[in-house]
Amino acid sequence: MVINYTVTLKGLEDQLLSVIVKFERRELEEQRERLIQETSDNKKLLKDLEDALLRELAQSQGNMLDNSELIQTLEETKTKATEVSEKLKLGAKTALDIDKLRDGYRPAARRGAILFFILAEMSSINTMYQYSLSSYLEVFQFSLKKSLPDAMLQKRLRNIMDTLTHNMYNYGCTGIFEKHKLLFSFQIAIKLEQDQGNVTQEELDFFIKGNIALEKSKRKKPFTWFPEEGWEDCIRLVEVLPDRFGSLLEDIERNEKLWKKWFDHDTPESQKYPLKYEDSLTHFQRLVLLRCFRIDRIYRAVEEYVTKSMGEKYVTPPIISFETVFEQSMPTSPIVFILSPGSDPASDLVKLAERIEFGSNKLKFLSMGQGQEKLALQYLETAVARGQWLMLQNCHLLVKWLRDLEKQLEKLTKPHPDFRLWLTTEPTPSFPIGILQRSLKVVTEPPNGLKLNLRGTYHKISATALSECPHPAFPALVFVLGFFHAVVQERRKYGKIGWNIGYDFNESDHRVCMQILNTYLTKAHEQAEVKIPWNSLKYLIGEVMYGGRAIDDFDRRVLRTYMDEYMGDFIFDTFQPFHFYVNENVDYRIPEDGPRDNYVDFIEGLPHANTPEVFGLHPNAEIGYYTQAARDMWMNLIELQPQTGGDTGGISREEFIGKVAQEVLNKIPQEFELDKIKKKYGLEISPTTVVLLQELERFNNLLNRMRKSLNTLQKALIGEVGMSSELDDVARALFNGLIPFIWRRLAPDTLKSLGNWMIHFERRYKQYYGWVNESEPQVMWLSGLHIPESYLTALVQATCRKNGWPLDKSTLYTSVTHWKKAEDVTERAHQGCFVDGLFLEGAGWDNENSCLIRQNPKQLIEELPVLKIIPIEAHRLKLQNTFKTPVYVTSQRRNAMGVGLVFEADLATTEHISHWTLQGVCLTLNTD
Q1: pLDDT digit string (tens) for 511-528?
Q2: CA distance 102 to 22
Q3: In Å, how far are 122, 462, 465, 594, 684 from 468, measured between CA atoms?
Q4: For residue 679, with 0-12 CB atoms within 10 Å meaning exposed, 13-18 middle and 19 or more buried, which class applies?
Q5: What percent of the chain clears pLDDT 90, i.e. is strictly above it?
Q6: In terms of C-beta density within 10 A (0-12 exposed, 13-18 middle, 19 or more buried), how is residue 350 classed?
Q7: Is the confidence at residue 28, as pLDDT, over 60?
Q8: CATH class of 450-617
Q9: What is the mean pLDDT of the chain?
């Protein structure tokens, strides 16, 4: 099956109207269909009569008036034609009457058409979200049957629309990742509100993009506490919606206390808005204003907006049970499990088979990989014939072969009624759309929240498992292991401050570690060893099993720290009882010894929600999580927007793109003349000068590409050249205030918007220009370098040459100075160099005592004073009370390829190092 993207909203609305009327007023739809057939027949008959008449006239010979046969034929034709014309007139009138009756049901048909397009557009967020019109029609017809009947048409329509909307939401949520479910709800709410004229495209565009101007406003923010970007957004908001926000800037400037009180509130979205804005704004306009002040509350505010617009059930996704999935499945359609880290549908499928007494001998598994293609097809043939369940695991490893599977599925005519095909796959853009559209898609994710995670773990531990090991410490250590397992999974929720790379810690890790505990404790008990072999357990669990998945050194450091915090004789200390985390509301501790139910009851008493502090993170991690969630939502919403229309005060999209292109062109400087610069330095050049020349070459490549792509785009906009996919990407990016992909490839990593990136770009040029025409900067702005680590390597090389040290036995260490800004530094470093523009995340900095301190509430990042980097011989380096802090290019930190880490800084600390390790402390060269 191929999805037909040519279907239009109006065309689908008419198609769904026929479906509704056929269900609600069958006789009316049948009458309409008969009328259409009769009208078609009558029109054909009229055409035949005209043709016959013309033929008679053409074949007539002699005087027509003397031809009595011809005159009679003409008379008969005229009579028939008159009859047919009368029938057509009557048919047209009847059709009008029928259409009036049918149009009564049009609101429900329009709702259905809008909902299908919302569902279909989700594929631009993730290619696995594919839905065919035929599968949607099944949901549509099911909703007609399930909606409550009512004699009043308006009430009946309301019932149909409510049932359809909720069924479509449930249907979509089954195959959508948790992180996209609120986006899906919001998209439904906003599209329906736009259809009713309650939200304009201008309002929505501003909410998604904010102020995308390249130039910063001359009107400066009035208060230090006001977010810089938020003030720029306010200025743009006044231009976009002058009727509602015309006096906003003056209102803010004159009423600092009111706005500050609202801004400082933990939940400003649910408080009274200051001044007239409480009563004068729509629900959506409140969201728009909140964007200017508190991005970290947008995610929660969107939940509130959806709840007010459509009801609470649209922010509480359905719980997906395997029984429900099985009930919805059919032998002819595969069930596709879209995997996420930590999920394992295979064990749940085995349990489902047991519960419904399907028989374990009729359940077959095959893990896909190279060379398994023929075996898979043999298994499929057997399963189809004998009514078995077949699960093909990790299908993303053999995407090409799935084309063959698709052909086999198309040939299925009468499979055994018990047959089911279950596929598991990670999201992959090349997965065949045909299989996705005909399948029932189910996203499997581990439980969300510490309590649910622990509950899930103990649900899989049998009642006798805790008594299998004779050692008295075994039940308590099983709980510690379960808590650790939940913590490492929940930490993933907080993004890069949790883990640099999202790991697939799953049930099998826990199961094997439980066996390790059993083996080692049983051995200790048999040998009458009093001491628990902590070192062996910590190494096998933290370094081998869980640490074996962690490919990042700093992530492994976090795992080791958890092992040190959770495992040791101290957890059994009766004088100083052990707590994983405790405050006035909750106590996460090891329950009293007893059977499995003791532990289950304790878990049931834990709160559903937990703060980041339980995992050793700062409460600010929650703010960081919600801020990133809002940014991710906006990026996804940009993908869902029609790339037409104006966001720019009435001018067309093309005019706006042309204007931005010209603004950027005006800011692009001339390339550096590398030949002249090389001659200036001569043959004896220092390692840092080599770095400069490499940097300039890369910068010139970027300048060339920017200039060339913008000039070609301007020609394409006026029709002089064709628009290529590359140019289309540039145009789309400029329209949305983003950096085009072809520029991004030639520039240092960044998460900035186009406007902020251009400020960064101009500052880079100034640093290079000063370095070429004056001297090497006395304070290096590392963020301005394409490959900053190459400069630090050159620094070590230069020092080794000067002092005669062996290069492989030299290293760097750092010291934070008391200078807050680069301008404060009056002389060049005698040894090493000074660098600035480093931002501290996960901790604060005490400038007076020069050491790490806990973050201030709501302050996620803090600029570090000027840092001194000093090369030294490794054997002479003896540092105490310092925390090895990774320095990354952006807040995205390091990816799975190891890209992003620049160096490690030594920051002084008075707290234990484990505190900063679990808080995810790092330095970055750029803010977002």
Answers
A1: 999 999 999 999 999 888
A2: 10
A3: 49, 10, 5, 13, 74
A4: exposed
A5: 57
A6: middle
A7: yes
A8: mainly alpha
A9: 88
The label of the residue with tokens 């999974």 reads 489
Q: Which residues contact 851 (CB under 8 A, 6 or more apart)?
A: 845, 907, 908, 909, 910
pLDDT tens digits, one per residue of 458-485: 888 888 888 888 999 999 999 999 999 9
Counting other chains too, the contacts that 684-691 makes at CB distance below 8 Å and 24 or more residues apart are: 686/794, 686/798, 687/793, 687/794, 687/795, 687/797, 687/798, 687/801, 688/776, 688/791, 688/794, 688/795, 688/798, 690/794, 691/785, 691/790, 691/791, 691/794
Residue type, 660: V
- Give residue-wise pLDDT tens across range 119-140: 999 999 999 999 989 889 989 9
CATH number, domain 322-444, options 3.40.1670.10, 3.30.1700.10, 3.40.50.300, 3.30.530.20: 3.40.50.300
Place of tokens 């939200």: 199
What's the rounded Cα separation, in Å, for the pair 900 and 159?
54
SS3 9: helix
Q: Which residues pair with 812 in a beta bridge?
A: 871
Residue whose tokens read 């009293």:
592
Q: Which two tokens stand for residue 473?
A: 């410490």
**What residues contact residue 683 under an 8 Å CB cut-off, 6+ apart?**
none
What's the CATH number of domain 786-928, 3.40.50.620, 3.40.50.720, 3.40.50.880, 3.10.490.20? Answer: 3.10.490.20
Tokens found for residue 401: 């072969």
Q: What is the pLDDT of residues 368-390, one digit of tens each?
A: 888 888 899 999 999 998 999 99
3-class state of residue 108 by DSSP: helix
Task: Reply yes or no on whether the pLDDT at 768 is more than 70.
Answer: yes
Backbone torsions φ then ψ of 581, nearest 5 degrees: -165, 140
With 60 as the cut, is the pLDDT of residue 649 above it?
no
Domain ranges of the chain: 9-176, 180-314, 322-444, 450-617, 648-776, 786-928
| DSSP per-residue letters across 53-95 | HHHHHHH--S-GGG-HHHHHHHHHHHHHHHHHHHHHHHHHHHH
Instruction: Answer for the pair 860, 623: CB distance below 8 angstroms, yes or no.
Output: yes
Tokens of 285: 């306009």
Least confident of 302-311, 321-330, 753-762: 321-330
Using the predicted structure, report yes or no on whether residue 647 has a pLDDT greater than 60: no
Identify the burial level of 598 via C-beta atoms within 10 angstroms of its C-beta, where 0-12 means exposed, 13-18 middle and 19 or more buried: middle
Is 414 exposed, middle or buried (CB count within 10 Å of its CB: 0-12, 13-18, 19+)? Answer: exposed
Q: Report how far residue 89's alpha carbon sits from residue 385's, in angstroms, rounded to the nearest whole number.
A: 58
> Is 623 exposed, middle or buried (CB count within 10 Å of its CB: 0-12, 13-18, 19+)?
buried
Q: What Å distances lie between residue 561 and 547, 589, 887, 920, CA to CA?
A: 12, 18, 20, 12
Q: Which tens digits make up the pLDDT trace of 308-366?
A: 999 999 988 887 788 888 888 888 889 999 988 767 788 888 888 888 888 778 888 98
pLDDT by residue (tens digit) across 41-82?
A: 767 777 777 777 777 666 666 665 666 666 776 676 777 777
Per-residue pLDDT band at 29 (split at 50, 70, 90): low
Long-range contact set of residues 4-9: C-beta below 8 Å, sequence gap at least 24: 4/133, 5/120, 7/133, 9/113, 9/114, 9/117
Contact 21, 100 (CB under 8 A): no
- In the 3-class helix/strand/coil scheme, how is 689-738 assigned residue by residue? HHHHHHHHHHHHHHHHHHHHHHHHHHHHHCCCCCCCHHHHHHHHHHHHCC
Give the residue-averaged pLDDT of 586-602.
90
